[in-house]
Amino acid sequence: MGHMKKLMALVALSFIFAPSISAHEGSVNLTGGTVSCKGVSIYRDSNYRVSGRCDGLVYPYETTYNKYVLWGKTNEGTVLIRIAEVDRGYFSGNIPTPFDSMYITAERDGLVRKPSDKLIVSGKLTPFDFDKSKVTTVATPLVTSKTTNSTKDASTVSTTTGNVVGKIVSSLLIVILVIVGLVIGASLIFRSRGSVSA
User: Fold this and answer.
1) What pLDDT, on a 0 to 100 scale, did the predictor assign at position 19?
2) Which of 29, 30, 52 is nearest to 120 (CA)?
């Protein structure tokens, strides 16, 4: 019975003092010199899918080093595993083992198994943070803004309609006044001619 308690205590202590396991889903941020790369790592179908884009890569890096390759460093920190070739600044590939940091090197061949010493950028994987207590939400009064916009639109339409109707009415009044003036003028002319001929 005493051995069982010791074993349980040992198991409990191993969980408490075990090294923390880093998450392998997160955002990728690689920097170095004038080159910057951003990406994301998502665990899917027993692999970590890593995709992203780099800005500032020069092609070719050197005469014989005209390829770039993305590498993932395992948690043990001793092995670099090839993830993908960086093609015109874009990368997308899989890595089956957990990793915590990434590197891009210049290479002679895009299918190499070991990295060269021509390190371009490096960086760590920042785990996604799904802690809902840190999320801040900002309430946006969508209905109010739509109502305000529709009210503004309605007032604009009614103002525009009123302006158009006012212009039409004033134009009609001017036309009527001109016609009335012409009729009166013509009748006066015909009366004066009729009185002269008599």
Assistant:
1) 40
2) 30
**Where residue 189 falls among pLDDT bands split at 50, 70, 90?**
confident
The model's pTM: 0.56
Per-domain residue ranges of the chain: 22-131, 138-198
Tell me the residue type at 77: G
Q: Is the pLDDT of residue 151 over 80?
A: no
Rounded Cα gap, residues 105 and 190, in angstroms: 105
C-beta of residue 85 within 8 angstroms of C-beta of residue 35: no
Looking at the structure, give the CATH architecture of the domain made up of residues 22-131: Sandwich (2.60)
Provide the edge-to-edge strand list for the sheet that holds 35-44: 80-86, 67-74, 99-107, 119-127, 26-32, 35-44, 47-55, 90-95
